[in-house]
Amino acid sequence: MNLVTLYECLCDMTRLRILNLLQNGPLCVCHIQDILDEPQVKVSKHLGYLKSRDVVTASREGNWMIYALPEKSARPAALSAAISAFEQSAPEKAIFKRDLAKLSKTDLTCSPLPVKTIRKTGASCECTPTR
Asked: How many other CB atoms sit within 10 Å of the CB of residue 6?
């Protein structure tokens, strides 16, 4: 992994917010869009940017596109180091805290996500699958 390319990925707040969410497990585009309160086009462009540089992985589950961080064992050392540094500084930023609070209230039962269950149901998901 090219270090300059990696840091170009990390120099945008939207992409950092996405990485912050994905540290907790895979998410579909519709959930990321809802949590960030950003247009689907913007979120998809940032996810495509991260995917094309191997910072995130994507898989199709039926009609849903599921994004995740690469498995720890498959991450290049530079990516692991960057994520570790980010994990240490992210809790200090209010926007990252707000995003994680929204994530914890997001109902993920509308999509076939293989997620860690740190989230609670309660907020209903109004999303529709991506096509």
From this structure: 17
